[in-house]
Amino acid sequence: MTTKLSRRSLLEGMLLIGAAGCAAPEAAAAAGDGVKAPADAWQRVRDEFEVSPAWIHMTSFYLDSHPRPVRAAIEALRRELDENPVDAVHEHEDTTPVREAAAAYMGVQADEIALTDSTTMGLALLYLGLPLKAGDEVLTTEHDHYAMHESLRLAAERSGAVVRKIALYERGSDATEAEMAGAIERAITPATRVVAITWVHSSTGVKTPVRAIAEVVARANQGRAPEDRVVCGVDGVHGFGVEDATMADLGCDFFSAGCHKWIFGPRGTGVLWGKAELWPLLRPSIPQFGKEAYEAWLRGQPPPPTNANMMTPGGFHSFEHRWALPAAFAFHRRIGKARVADRIHALNRQCKEGLKGMRHVTLHTPLDDALSAGIICFEVAGMTPEAAVKRLRERKIVASTSPYRTSYARVAPSLLNDEAEVDTVLRAIRALA
Ligand SMILES: Cc1ncc(COP(=O)(O)O)c(C=O)c1O
Q1: Ligand 1 lined by 118 (C-beta under 6 Å)
Q2: Which end of the chain is more exposed for a tag (fewer CB within 10 A), N or C?
């Protein structure tokens, strides 16, 4: 029988579990700024995961494996919920600690964050929540994910707005920052109310210049009345947990990301961040279960004004997962965001340079670190992406195909991999010739 933990002691416990379980990340961070972590420190980071060693996992961008501190936090909370669900919910109903952990990682305020279950949920809440109307234009690109395109389609269907999709580049491997920002700049019209982009395209591996695009949007907004302003929303999921960037670095207005990919958070968790002054623009789609909103309903009064908290969907959730999310941010912060970014970029560079040298391979992801992150898309001459992925599976390598109209084979070296695994993957792809 376990004793019930108070919220504070539970969080402290989670941090202790993290500290014990995270000797590995700390070792990775121990070398000091600007100095590479010793190789065995990365091995110890890998040891925090229970992924099967029988496989080389090149798909942790798809759905994560929980590292030890996250598993331990979920388990402690699950036990607490199973012992006394009502008391556990009352104990943890204030999600400030979860939002504070996300905020510290993102460099923002906790009250600017709505908690979601996924990138998809955040995108739908955002775009369906915007006050669009007939005649408005929503500008997006051809390279974004189904979740983005469908959220925009649903929002347009309800409001009468029109969705316009443009290409940011012809070939991913040749994309440039100026070309991508320029394409958005040229496409914004007086009717544009939304610029909806994706930080890292899972269709090509291209990392878009979010900052430059946000600046284009800011210029377009100069002189516009508040009701005519363009809102810049970002599907950030494949940069979140990879890049060493804050929301201020990105400069966008809203940012949605699931935490169950590169962040290694509990499955079914995510965040929607927005600038404090822009939240009142939105209308919630799902009732929130907070005290203030509930009391307003009990008194027959109008709901409180929209803010990030009001946009957090209510109803009961997979609570042990949501409340355990701080353990994932702590895991990243203990290693260090810069070190995580350096490591993922180094492994991806090694992989792309190897692929670039293969005559039977066409690389669709730029080599440049500024234009790519942790996803690599490629084609093998004379072979469908499915066939290439199948052949890699025969060699115990888990790769994937990109689920887009034009599909490529994909590998995504991450903290779950090392240089030797990248070499093995390169040998296997070389053997596909
Ligand atoms: C660019 C992009 N956005 C959104 C999603 C969906 O993410 P989630 O499962 O967090 O909704 C994916 C892939 O799963 C994706 O590749």
Answers
A1: yes
A2: N
Rg (CA), the chain: 22
pLDDT in tens, 205-228: 999 999 999 999 999 999 999 999
Q: Which of 88, 147, 140, 94 is nearest to 117 (CA)?
A: 147
> Which domains does the chain possess?
96-318 (3.40.640.10), 338-430 (3.90.1150.10)
Q: Is 269 in the pocket of ligand 1 (CB under 6 A)?
A: no
Q: Is 120 in the pocket of ligand 1 (CB under 6 A)?
A: yes
In terms of residues, how long is the chain? 433
Torsion of CA 381, 382, 384, 389, to 10 degrees: -60
Ligand 1, pocket-test mutation among 127, 198, 202, most atoms within 8 A of CB: 202
Answer yes or no: pTM beyond 0.90. Answer: yes
Q: Between β-strands 376-380 and 409-411, what pairing exists: parallel, antiparallel or unpaired?
A: antiparallel
Atom 13 of ligand 1, residue of closest alpha carbon: 62
Residue the block writes with tokens 């700024």: 33
Q: Are 328 and 264 in contact (CB under 8 A)?
A: yes
Q: What is the pLDDT of residues 48-80, one digit of tens each?
A: 999 999 999 999 889 999 999 999 999 999 999
Q: Is 203 a pocket residue for ligand 1 (Cβ < 6 Å)? A: no
Residue type at 37?
Answer: A
